[in-house]
Write a structure and sequence with these properties.
Number of helices: 16
Radius of gyration: 23 Å
Number of strands: 19
Largest sheet: 7 strands, mixed
Distance between the termini: 59 Å
Length: 489
């Protein structure tokens, strides 16, 4: 057992930040002495004293042998991994590295259609061929859940030459599929299970949270420590266990994807966040769950509102567990879209959601929230429910299957082929039945509705225009106004 009280990287950074010396190395602001005054006024000078480069005492992220290596070993033990890598380019580079480490050009990978755009980037970089599975879909709530073990088994029977399976656990809504069963099926083919666990870094630290991906049998998982724990934005971790994945390939992939000038402030925040959870994680998560439960109980009792809960009888396909710190509130019975409700709550009650969708608002509740935050959230929804009655028709559902392409029907070129193909820009109306060369997705949550290689259909275009009309933001494409799209010539 390692001493989880230790913070080797944080300690080394503090020592170097407070050492008096003449600096003739990067960065150019020289520990804040040359920083812009307005920026110093906002952030203070201390943060710039700690903004250091790869000095001898601070180790090297690409080939760690000192304090970074020690900090990663502590993290591996705390999160239940055999090896851990710190990520300063977010979980995005971790997902890309996972695909690069397991798949080469032309190799097949099985993954859900509702993956994050980082997985599509991984396909483009690696040249891997996606075998897409549609997630289970709740047509009443208009929410896509997880893929099922049955779907994974069927895909592996049809594609026994696949090199890996990738899944999302949990979804942005906090929904978890049967990862243990998916892992068992995947391992029968002696291939690794890769998990996008960006929103599940806290699972390890409380028994009332869903099972962590590694404990459920994942070979590799990527976690956004900044999303739900105490690290700085962009700071994430990649964990592996077992011998199905070559660790050297992960390291080499990360050398391609990570900056050669990593932020030591981000790296130290990972070290500190790990120590915090290793020492106090259960208490912090107990408090968080208590706050979340108060919000769930009070808001679910308000007229016209409901919250996403576990289905009765122990779950449904693609939905076997729920992260109760993730709160999704359905507002459509008030005659509001999630986008409209988000505007009202933010402008009138200073309550800001993680993301709105057509029928819902989703909130992330963490150990950084307070009782006052929860009371403000409840008060905002109480006022919203009182002010809006069902004077309009319930917001129209757009069914996931209507626009979610499948490998058999809509992927005409590999993502890599389409991305690098000669393209032309056309008015949106003229792109129907053409092959897309861009990643197009409402953000958040960053799940592509179109990706390079897919056939553009009318239902996709209608969906994107409706999301935009409701106030959603379309990202990934060159023309975010969505007046044009790039297609293969």
């Amino acid at each position: 057992m390692l001493n989880q009280n230790q913070t080797p990287l944080l300690d080394a950074l503090k020592a170097n930040a407070t050492r008096s010396h003449a600096a003739f190395y990067m960065p150019g602001h020289k520990q804040g002495k040359g920083i812009s005054q307005p920026l110093a006024d906002l952030l203070g000078k201390a943060v710039f004293r700690a903004d250091l480069t790869e000095l001898a005492d601070l180790d090297n992220l690409s080939t760690p042998q000192g304090v970074i290596q020690e900090a990663q070993q502590l993290a591996a033990e705390a999160f239940g991994a055999s090896q851990t890598w710190f990520l300063v380019n977010g979980s995005t580079c971790g997902i890309e590295a996972a695909i690069l480490a397991t798949c080469g050009n032309g190799d097949k990978i099985i993954l859900p259609r509702n993956v994050h755009s980082s997985a599509i980037a991984g396909l483009i970089l690696s040249g891997a061929i996606p075998i897409f599975l549609n997630p289970e879909y709740d047509s009443v709530l208009d929410i896509a859940h997880s893929i099922t073990p049955t779907a994974v088994e069927s895909a592996l029977q049809q594609h026994p030459d696949a090199k890996a399976v990738l899944t999302v656990y949990p979804t942005y809504y906090g929904v978890c599929g049967d990862l243990n069963a998916i892992a068992n099926i995947t391992h029968q083919y002696n291939i690794p299970l890769l998990v996008d666990e960006a929103h599940g870094a806290h699972f390890r630290f409380h028994p009332k949270l869903p099972t962590p991906a590694l404990a459920a049998g994942a070979d590799l998982t990527v976690q956004s420590i900044h999303k739900v724990l105490g690290a700085m934005t962009q700071a994430s971790m990649l964990h592996v266990q077992g011998n199905r994945i070559d660790s050297d390939r992960i390291s080499k992939a990360l050398q391609l994807l990570q900056s050669t000038s990593p932020s030591y402030i981000l790296l130290a925040s990972l070290d500190a966040a790990r120590q915090q959870m290793a020492l106090h994680g259960k208490l912090l998560m107990s408090q968080t769950l208590q706050l979340a439960q108060e919000a769930r109980t009070k808001i679910s009792q308000l007229p016209g509102l409901s919250v996403l809960e576990m289905p009765q009888l122990g779950g449904t396909p693609g939905f076997v567990a729920l992260d109760k710190t993730r709160l999704t509130v359905t507002v459509s019975n008030l005659g509001l879209t999630g986008f409209a409700a988000d505007d009202v709550l933010d402008e009138k009650f200073a309550v800001t959601a993680e993301f709105p969708s057509q029928q819902h608002l989703t909130f992330i509740i963490t150990m950084g929230n307070t009782t006052a935050d929860i009371q403000q959230l409840i008060q905002g929804f109480t006022a919203l429910a009182q002010e809006y009655r069902r004077t309009n028709a319930t917001v129209k559902n757009y069914i996931w299957q209507d626009f979610s392409p499948t490998a058999a029907s809509n992927l005409y070129l590999s993502p890599r082929e389409a991305f690098f193909a000669a393209s032309e820009t056309l008015p949106l109306a003229k792109t129907c039945h053409r092959i897309c060369t861009e990643i197009v997705c409402p953000y958040p949550p960053g799940i592509p509705v179109l990706m390079p290689g897919e056939l553009i259909t009318k239902s996709v275009l209608d969906y994107l225009q409706q999301i935009q009309g409701m106030g959603g933001f379309i990202s990934g494409c060159h023309d975010t106004s969505l007046k044009t799209l790039k297609v293969v010539q």
